[in-house]
Amino acid sequence: MRLSTKGRYAVMAMTDLAKRQDQGDGRAVALAEIAARQQISLSYLEQLFARLRRKGLVKSARGPGGGYRLALDSEKTLISEIVLAVDEPLRATRCGMTKGGPKGCMAGGERCMTHDLWEEMGRQIHGYLASVSIADVLEGRLRPDSKSLEIAAE
Fold it and tell me: Distance (Å, rounded) from C-alpha 24 to C-alpha 129?
């Protein structure tokens, strides 16, 4: 499974927003600032933030000093919500959906032999992203501690 630029850039920008918001005096953060720091096209960020705003993950402020703020605390903003808000599917199968239900990836609409494997992997990835907040990313709580590494090596 590969996360597209939409999902990656949205997470990068939201993490940048949270960091600047925490460091600042509570003022809104301009997208142009985020675009420059993260080296992401401003017009692309505008599209992503329109989706994030519609999903209630950010709030916008107009006028001088305008920009964006997180709608929720960074502890409550989950990575999975950001990825899903920009229409990034968290699926690892190539099977599609039809009006009649799921459609398999094989000729005639059957599911491939490895469908369940990829479907479960997609669920695991979604579960992981749903367990990680922006605050976790900012505070470096994603790295395994040395004790976990020692146990894994045994």
Answer: 27
Residue 153: how many CB atoms within 10 A of its CB? 6
C-beta separation of 14 from 57 below 8 A: yes
117 CB-near residues (< 8 Å, 6+ apart): none
> What is the C-alpha separation between 109 and 123, in angstroms, rounded?
22
Is the pTM higher than 0.85? no
What residue type is 72 in one-letter code? L
Residue 119 CB coordination number (10 Å) = 16
Residue entry with tokens 């799921």:
102
3-state secondary structure of 58: strand
pLDDT in tens, 26-75: 789 999 999 999 999 999 999 999 999 999 999 998 888 789 999 999 99
Q: 148 to each of 82, 107, 118, 142, 151, how far by Cα in Å? A: 28, 45, 27, 12, 5
Coil/strand/helix, residue 67: strand
Round to whole Å and give the CA distance between 53 and 74. 15
SS3 151: helix
Sequence-distant (≥ 6) Cβ neighbours of residue 128 within 8 angstroms: none
